[in-house]
Amino acid sequence: MRPFRFGVQANGAASAAEWRDLARRAEAAGYDALTMPDHFSEQLAPVPALMAAADATERLRIGALVWDNDYKHPVVLAKELATMDVLSGGRLEIGIGAGWMQSDYDQSGIPYDPAPVRIDRMIEGIEVIRGCMAPGPFSFSGRHYTVTGYEGLPKPLSRPPLLVGGGGPRMLRYAAREADIVGVNPVLTSGRIDASTISSMSAEEVDAKVAVVHEAAGDRIDLIEMNIRAFLVAIAPDAAAATAGVAGMVGVPESMVAASPFALVGPPAKLAEDLLARRERWGFSYVIVGGENLDDFAPVVAALSGR
Fold it and tell me: Which is the most buried residue in 12, 93, 229, 230, by most CB within 10 A?
């Protein structure tokens, strides 16, 4: 099994000093990566913010969870990503998604195409980004993008790992075939977080998603790092009370919260045991929590990182 590593996902901070402090605290606590969402809502812009975090740290990896392919032409994004990798000393992870938050599209005027179209465009976008980062000039002719004799410079220092997450079978199959890191996500087909999103976080739903990944990956499954972003986190000494509180908040049975790999509920010692069991069952070794959980979750990171 792959050793554990941990990331923290943050939207930003009230000042540059607070943002740098957050990155340094994450690094000092043993987190491997700092990630950011890529939305038009109240958050810092990920490219400059992540570079500031990289400048404030020495080993912390940086990336978005995930870049929305529709928000930038992939040639533009590829250049920004390669620059980030160069300036961070090779600490970039590339997370790419097809986009899901409809309010971003509505507010910006970007067409919110049906999911199959957005996924097609993302697949082409990833091919363009890979071509831009490969040696020599690159040309591509697809349905959505055309690139002609483009020499993508700078080139990244190394080959940044590609993370693709999915909640549905098509995205999971693509990720299993192409990505270095496969993120298992809830269902987000409605363009917002709703009851179907919460219900798709059950252990049984995750069993089905991971089965799709294994079937599509075939022999390359051992090359894949399995990732999950924990959304329901309540680190507290009384696990039963905390589970009841989370279940009441999202409107699901306590048993679902207790079993879901999207939930981390209870004291650090219990969470460490839960993560060991989940790695055994689903393969999740790369676990990301929210910035609000950075300090409380740090004992778990200390106990399991690299193990």
Answer: 93
The burial of 14, by beta-carbon neighbours within 10 Å (0-12 exposed, 13-18 middle, 19 or more buried), is given as: exposed
- Res 185 pLDDT > 90: yes
Give first-to-last CA distance, the chain, whole Å: 10
Crossing angle of helices 16-28 and 46-56, in 10° steps, is 60
Number of domains in the chain: 1
Q: What is the CATH number of the domain that holds 268?
A: 3.20.20.30
Domain that holds residue 43: 5-304
CB within 8 Å of 22: residues ≥ 6 apart: 10, 13, 34, 53, 291, 294
pLDDT mean over 192-208: 84
CB burial string 36-47: b at 16+ within 10 A, e below: bbbbbeeebebb
pTM (whole model) above 0.90:
yes
